[in-house]
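Same chain as my last thread, 223 residues:
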Amino acid sequence: MKIEPVYFDQQILVINKPAGIPVLPDGWDKEAPCLVKLLEAEYGKLWVVHRLDKTTSGVMVFARTAEAHRSLNLQFDRHDVIKIYHAICTGEPKWDEHIARHPLRIDVGHSHRSMVDNAKGIPAETTFRMLQRFRGFSLLEVVPGTGRTHQIRVHAYALGFPLLGDILYGAPKTDLISRPALHAKSLSFIHPVSGGRVPYTTPYPDDFTIALRTLHQANFPKR
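reply #2:
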């Protein structure tokens, strides 16, 4: 699998992650293919700063030095990094913007799901903004305020609008896409050396584009 860089220098590597490959090895199989191994074969030692789900596509940044790793970790810890996702959800929310604040319990059961737990869950916040309404579906911009496992997927489900293709979180089976329709569209952070804020944006992968095109053709966007 060839992964083209979005940007790289001596400090950082920014890529457009394909869906279907984990960032680190899954489970106990340390020899299984993963994103870090593929990238280190070409770019040398990398430090993982953040993760995307195996099924999620989109922009990621890796550190290439320990100093860059420390700088980026601090930015993520302080919520100085701006992450924007695009998601196709089932249903048509009446709101144009909504902030979900359902507390989450992580890694529940054999399926390792996250779930809303108002009593024992940890705080989580996700902002959803309407980009496009279709008949029975919607394209949303999603900005997570925290970084919990499966946070966007669970909050969308809790609001009654699970992501298209997200069978684990209540979406019906579909032929439109074979994974949860979630793409990390853009990432903005302070460069560890230059000190300036650098934004990076990635295009939709083919499966996301085809799903949107099908909705346009079949459903005629409402606005």
